[in-house]
Structure formats: C-alpha cells, structure tokens
Amino acid sequence: MAQITALAVSEPVRVDSRRVGDIVTELGETAAQNVIGLALEQLAGALTSADRAIRDADLDEAARQCDLLARLAWQIGLLSLAGVAMDLGCCAERRDPVALGAIHARLMRVGNRSLTAIWDRTGLG
Questions:
Q1: Which of 5-9, 91-95, 105-109 has the lowest average pLDDT?
Q2: What DSSP assignment string belongs to the chain?
Q3: How far apart are CA 2 and CA 73, in angstroms?
Q4: Which CA distances in Å does 13 have to 64, 83, 94, 97, 109?
Q5: 48 vs 30, 54, 61, 66, CA distance in Å?
Q6: How far is the C-alpha of 25 from the C-alpha of 32, rounded, in Å?
Q7: Dist CA 114 CA 74 (whole Å)
Q8: Rounded mean pLDDT of 15-44?
Q9: Confidence at residue 79, expressed as pLDDT on a 0 to 100 scale
Q10: What is the greatest pairwise CA distance in the chain?
Q11: pTM for this model (two decimals)
Q12: What is the pLDDT of residues 98-124, one digit of tens each?
C-alpha cells in the first residue's frame, strides 16, 4: 500500500519595502495610503478578472489581465505577485495548459497573500 503525504503549499511573498517607503516619502502618509488603497482595489479587480478569464478559457483576456496585474503589482512593490502574474500571462500566450493550471493556482495563493501583506504593512486594515 502506498503512503500519501500531504504537502503544505506555503511560500513567502516579497514586498519591496523601499518602494512602499518611497511612495510614502513622495506623497506623504495620507496620500500614499489613498494611492496604495486604490491600487489594491485595482489589483483585486485584475486578480478576479484574470481568475475568471482562466476559468472561462479566455486566454487572450487572461494574458491582458495578467499584464495589468503585473504592472500594478510592480508599481507598489509586490514583487512576488508581479513575477507570478508575468509567468501566468506567458503561459496563457503560449497556450500551455499544464503550466497554466499550476501557475493559476500559485497566482491565487500569492495574490491573496500579497494583498494582505501590503494592506497590513501600510496600515490600511
């Protein structure tokens, strides 16, 4: 009889604290919180749209949403999220179903953890 071991899927998310600090320095704390809050709303929307496009097998739309997601994430210092979104966009463009499934699951994990991390870090919560 074979033994099956459940593996916990957990990975740290990378947030560029310097980028977040630069935003606060450039805009001031109140304006920075407003800008980051707006960016988080847009990120959440793009994450939801990318998820929906993948589930609907609309790979062109998935690639567009992943590009938007990567650019937004990069601007506010969510490095892990930006990287995974770029990877998923490339898989969607290549029409690679095996990699698409795995990276889609990773995007949802990293996306949710990244949004929480930046929310907590900036004191928006």
A1: 5-9
A2: -----PPP---PPPB-HHHHHHHHHHH-HHHHHHHHHHHHHHHHHHHHHHHHHHHTT-HHHHHHHHHHHHHHHHHTTBHHHHHHHHHHHHHHHHT-HHHHHHHHHHHHHHHHHHHHHHHHHHT--
A3: 42
A4: 23, 11, 26, 25, 10
A5: 27, 10, 12, 10
A6: 8
A7: 12
A8: 90
A9: 94
A10: 62
A11: 0.84
A12: 899 999 999 999 998 988 887 766 555
Sign of CA dihedral 48, 120, 109, 5: negative
Residue 48 tokens read as 């939801």
- Whole-number Å distance between alpha carbons of 88 and 55: 13
pLDDT computed for residue 117 by the predictor: 80
Tokens linked to 24 = 């606060």
